[in-house]
Amino acid sequence: MEDLKLVRGIVIKHIPVGEYDYAVTVFTAENGRISAFAKGAKKPGSKLCGSVEPFCFGTFKLFVGKNSYTIIEADIENYFEGFRQDFEASLYGSVLLEIADYYTRENAEDKELLNLLYISLKALLNSNIPNRLVKCVYIIRALVTEGEYPGVPQKQMLMGSTKHTLEYIASSDLTRLYTFNVAGDVLDELERVTADYVSRFIDRPIKSMEMLEVL
User: For position 9, what pLDDT does the model report?
Assistant: First the structure.
């Protein structure tokens, strides 16, 4: 009998393998980060075509091999198609995916980070919330989730509104995380703070963030 496994999560990256296949990384609710092959996914008409692209969220049926997983079916609930029409938003989304990839581990459940990633991707497609703010909120809250948030910087001269915003981001319920906006000068300070956090706590380049800086 085939050994099958169902997981629910978001595709955070894929790499071409050969002419028709992908090596896919899925951030799952049940098993943290999972690496799996998607055979034939690049072939037109394949049942996996378009279902193992970054940002795809849904349920994936895996064949459990001796040394690897193979995706055999995908039931996608949200393709986040808005990123395909908005290049800048897709870059911000890629920043979120890269940071998730940095923190996730094989077979290490991290449902809070997965939920944060999902609602943050949705927030990027909300025209009422600046993408810069979403990026800051996500980075700060990811640090909180992973136990690395150092608190409000004490050595930086920050406005009271910025300090209050940092405290709100760190402590609010996920459902209320994207229910506010800030003035431009506060957002500028938030970006400086989060850039400092990234340089201190993430010890590898975030390529999408570098591309945003170029833009």
Answer: 96
pLDDT at 2: 64
State the Cα–Cα distance between residues 13 and 139, nearest whole angstrom: 19
What is residue 59's three-state secondary structure?
strand
The domains of the chain, with CATH numbers, are: 4-78 (2.40.50.140), 82-214 (1.20.1440)
User: How far lies 61's CA from each of 4, 26, 77, 78, 161, in Å?
Assistant: 7, 12, 14, 16, 47
Q: How far apart are CA 188 and CA 192, in angstroms?
A: 6
Tell me how far the alpha carbon of residue 188 is from its chain's centroid: 22
CA distances from 97 to 113, 117, 118, 142, 204 (A): 11, 8, 10, 12, 14
Task: Give the integer Cα–Cα distance in Å for 79 and 77.
Answer: 7
Residues 6+ apart with CB under 8 A from 159: 185, 186, 189
In this prediction the pTM is 0.94
Q: What is the rounded CA–CA span in Å between residue 189 and residue 195?
A: 10
Of the candidates 73, 105, 55, which has an alpha carbon nearest to the alpha carbon of residue 6?
73
Residues of the chain below pLDDT 50? 1
Residue where the block lists tokens 């570098």:
210
